[in-house]
Write a structure and sequence with these properties.
β1, α3 and β2 form a beta-alpha-beta unit. The protein is α/β, with parallel strands linked by helices and about 140 residues long. The chain contains 7 helices and 5 strands; from the N terminus they run ααβαβαβαβαβα. It has a 5-stranded parallel β-sheet with strand order 2-1-3-4-5, sandwiched between helices.
Amino acid sequence: MTLESKWTIQPMVHTSAAELVRRCILVVDDDAEIREAVGLVLTPNYRVRFAVDGIDGCDKAYDLPLPDLIIADVSMPRLDGIAMVQRIRAHPSMSRVPVIFFTGQISVASIIAGLSVGTFAYLSKTSAPGVLEGKVKRALGG
């Protein structure tokens, strides 16, 4: 089953007043289609920002409002997701922000490396949208 058959691509709609009260999620992935698909699943309930790689993710993690959750790929150019999380976690204000790895890297070694940096969850990009939604709710305490 392909990603396209599981995820419906629709235009993003933003409501500025509602965005001010919604929890903020930073999605970091070098694949534009994945960023869009994850955004479509999450924007009805969350304020979603995007970064295109680990360096961009580090920069945008400190933009206000600070993210309540980070969803990131593991394999990205310039800086991988694991190194990005280590850098972000070094800052006291970001040390407890939950991270979900949403990635195509599903070897046992990759999963162990991802979980070793204190991530909340490690999900395959082939997971159904409901699995990601459920992990996001749990990570945010809902």
